[in-house]
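Box 3.1 A note on notation
Throughout this textbook, protein chains are presented in two layers. The first layer is the amino acid sequence; the second is a token string describing backbone geometry. Keep the layers aligned when reading.
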Amino acid sequence: MAIVDTWEYYLHHFDEGLGLVYERFVLNDFLRRVREEYGIHTVLEAPLFGMAGVSGINSVALAQDGCRVTLVDDEPRRVQGVQRIWQLLDLPVHLVYTRDWHALPFRDDSFDLAWEWAGLWFLPNPEALLRELVRVSRRVVFVAMPNRWQVGYWLRRWFLDKDFFQHVDEGWTHMGRVRRILEDAGVRIVEEGVLDVPPWPDTVMPAQEVLRRLGIRSKALTDRFSGEGWHWSTMDYYLGKDPELYQRVMRYTWLERAPLPWQVKAVWAHHRYLLGVVDKSR
């Protein structure tokens, strides 16, 4: 099963792996900081896909903090699956289906925060979506994409999952390009950096699958990364089934939290981001 086709599986099976749970937790902490600093009450995430694993739960932490969350997707079956997940979480959400990313069905200045995570390179017209995020935001825009400079990206690009890159436009990993579009649309960038900097490379697949694709046949290693003892689910944490999960995972944040310039961390970071405030008066 190709990595790009796993979203249907994860809408029903929530065991995502350590790397994805780590990614969600550090993203949650970042979003909560943004909410506090900028007084965020209404949120648009478009598209709701981009991160691997369970689709549509990137904004759960904001909803838990009382924000009104709107999510946009272009796949009806995924919309239905994400709706079921939010019902399971007993959280309100407004899910919107669209076939037109260059004209989102919202009025100007509808949201305090408009954002996307790693989804631009899947879209037919990413520049139009970026301009729409600016149009519908009255306060903050946040954009993050995979970091093309880190080791795991190139390991995946040339050895582990070459087929994936036939389905995406890698040009949208160039954050300078994204920055120019946002600034031209009326955003003043106030923060640039990296997120998701664990001590392992970003391969976007389970560890045992990485071993298999690299031709490493070690029962000891395979057992280490599989079985009942290797279960990592953000949904279990959200549902209260694994309340200690955050503490276990955040033990790996020593590099994330190291007092180093983000440019140094970029050698290993899985994602780069831009955070900007909207100034349409220019």
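The longest strand covers residues 137-146. Residues 1-5, 220-226 have pLDDT under 50 and may be disordered.
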